[in-house]
Specification:
Layout: E1 13-14, H1 19-25, E2 37-43, E3 49-54, H2 59-66, H3 85-94, H4 105-113, E4 122-125, E5 142-145, E6 152-154, E7 162-164, H5 165-170
Parallel strand pairs: 4-5
Antiparallel strand pairs: 1-3, 2-3, 6-7
Length: 171
């Protein structure tokens, strides 16, 4: 899951015991008194460890964390950054820093590992599909939608019944 746009990463994966975070954020600071979902100790910038937590609204992510089904990869960078936001996203989405490539790392994965996969193995919810999902046409194991409320399953051709996407994902 990539959270982009207006996401406040310091209040998504929260270093809630870090004194710099708590003093600099003033009214934005989140801690145990706000119901953060504690994850435990993590490597701190500058060495050592600090306690981190998830935003209170991420209870479902915390649940799959507790099941060992999710990892947090926070603050990822690359050597010798040129400080271009757009170049950084291209590197991130292609996993090929410094190279011009036409496909993304997820697209390459699907091309090589998902022959015959359904188009709903991955979902890109974005107004502009990311380069990460671009593939070489060997498979199309993902869909791109801008608003999940506009997307509905159809179990055609056997019927004209529409099935609610949210109900299917919750199941």
């Amino acid at each position: 899951m990539q959270l982009a746009g207006g996401n406040d990463s310091l209040n998504t994966v929260i270093p809630y015991t870090n004194s710099i975070y708590t003093s600099a954020r003033n009214s934005l600071v989140l801690g145990t008194q706000h119901g953060v979902r504690t994850l435990g100790a993590a490597a701190a910038t500058g060495g050592g460890t600090e306690q981190i937590a998830l935003h209170p609204a991420l209870a479902n992510v915390k649940r799959i964390w507790d099941n060992g089904e999710v990892a947090v990869v926070n603050g990822v960078g690359y050597p010798n950054p040129n400080l271009s936001h757009f170049t950084s996203f291209d590197y991130w989405h292609t996993a090929q820093p410094g190279q011009l490539v036409r496909d993304g790392w997820l697209g390459r994965f699907f091309d090589h590992e998902c022959s015959g996969c359904a188009s709903t193995n991955a979902i890109d919810m974005s107004d502009n599909p990311t380069l990460a999902f671009r593939h070489n046409g060997l498979t199309d194991a993902h869909i791109s939608i801008s608003d999940p409320a506009l997307f509905q399953w159809r179990d055609l051709p056997t019927s004209d019944r529409r099935l609610d996407l949210e109900a299917n994902y919750r199941q």
